[in-house]
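Inputs:
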Amino acid sequence: MSDEPTSVAGVETGQDDTRRPVDQTAQFADVIAARVRKLLRSLKRDAAGVHPRSCPLCDYYGAFTPYGFPLRFDAQCAKCGSLERHRLVKLLLDRKKVIGPGHSVLHFAPEPQLGATIRALAGHYVTADLMRPRVDLKLNIEAMDLADDSFDRIVCCQILEHVDDRKALAEMFRVLRPGGVALLNTPVIEGWDETYENPEIDGARMRLLHFGQADHVRYYGRDLRDRITAAGFALEEFNSVEPDVSTYGLWRGERIFLARKPALGTMNI
Ligand SMILES: [Zn+2]
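Outputs:
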C-alpha cells in the first residue's frame, strides 16, 4: 500500500513535497508510541512491586501484582490471588488458633483464597451466600434460616458495609453458640469518630463517590466497635503491624475484629 501513489502524494498535483504532511504525522505517531511504550514499561515495573513479599496462604515469595479501584500496587499474590485481608486472616489463624477441629464454621461469601485453608482447619465447614451459586446454603445474613446456637465460628469479611449491619450482627449473635466467635472484616476509617451513612445517597455512581464502592451503603468510623458490642459481643482485634506489613504485603492498620458471644454463665454480666 505504501508504494501506491495517492492524490496527496502528488500524482494529481505533481508536487513532490506534498508527502511532507504525511511524514510529519508518522513522525509524531512514532514519538507518541515511544512515549506510551516507556510509560507502559514503567507501569509494568512499578506494578510488579518493588520488594518481594511472602504469601502465608500459598508460600509464594516474590513480587505481588496490583489490584483494586483505585489501583493498589503490591496488593495481590501472583500465585494464589490472595489480597491483604486474606493474608491477615491467615496470620490470625496461624497465631491465635481461632479455628480448630472442634469447631463448626459458617463462612459467608466464601473467598476462594481462604476457603481451602479454613475447611482444612475446621471440624465442620459450611459456606453460605445470598446471591452466589456453588455454596452450601443460600442465606440472607440479615435473617438467617438457621437455628439458634448453630455454629462455633462465623467468617464474615467485607459484608457488613453492604447490608443492614445491626440485623446482620444480631443474627450472627443468635446463630453462634455461647463462646462462639465471628471473624469480621470491613473497611474502617480510624480517623472518623462516627460511621458515615447518608440516606440521600442513591445510585451506584454516588455510592462509589461517598462509600468507596458502588454497592456499599456506609463507611465505618471507629464507632464500628460500638455497633459490634451493642449486639452483645465482647470484642478483640487483630491488627496488621510491622514487620508483617512489609513481609506479607498487608494494609497498614487493617483489623480483623473477633466478636465473641459470651459463654454460658457469663451472659448479661
Ligand atoms: Zn499466595
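Remarks. Residues 20-47 form the longest helix (28 residues). Residues 1-15 have pLDDT under 50 and may be disordered.
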